[in-house]
Amino acid sequence: MTARIGVITFPGSLDDRDAQRAVRLAGGEPVALWHGSHDLDGVDALVLPGGFSYGDYLRAGAIAALAPIMSEVKDAAAKGMPILGICNGFQMLVEAHLLPGGLIRNAHQQFIRRDQRLVVENADTAWTHGFEAGQEIVIPLKNADGGFTCSAETLKQIEGDGLVAFRYRGVNPNGSLDDIAGLTNERGNVVGLMPHPEHAVEPGFGPQTPSAMRSGTDGLTFFTSAVAAVIARV
Predict the structure, then answer these.
(1) Which of 27, 39, 41, 216 has its CA 20 to 30 A from that of 135?
(2) What are the CA-CA distances from residue 188 to residues 78, 127, 163, 201 (Å)?
(3) Structure confidence at residue 144 (pLDDT)
(4) Positive or negative CA dihedral for 115, 120, 126, 130?
């Protein structure tokens, strides 16, 4: 079978086409979905892409979390469908309470763009099982509201339950608590992260590596993992 992975476009989405391309390169079938619809078109997994949904008014991801299609996203998450939120999509997931905590303005109050080193903390999710726990990867990062925050009690629960999916290594670019770059839910089907794996899926267009310029493809593993997870569920 071919895994059909929906990519939802919101007003202000910038990286939806990139996410569709990543799905295609991973061997899946990308399906374009619209924020104002209540139809997931029978997809097997979902990606909430990066960008500036609804202009980031109120808070980044806050309005998008109330979009019509998010009712279906929440239902799908409860049923175990693999769902990935990238940057603005991660912001949507926390605003929709599908992941804990919140994301606020970077500590230095500036937009940042860099090839970011990450450590894979949880390799038991639908989107990360192609990695190994402790593995270092490099994924492009670009955000202004990427500082992860939560209460001390919530942070204790996140750490205790192993819900940190990724941590920043080398530098914490936005002031996130405990260097948290990404989270998973307890079931492991919902994952959100601030860096952009869809920008590291093809040689010549990814991060710099010691072997060759722009040759980094660590992001592709997110999407091949999801395709494999979908096939394994059938």
Answers:
(1) 27
(2) 11, 8, 9, 22
(3) 85
(4) positive
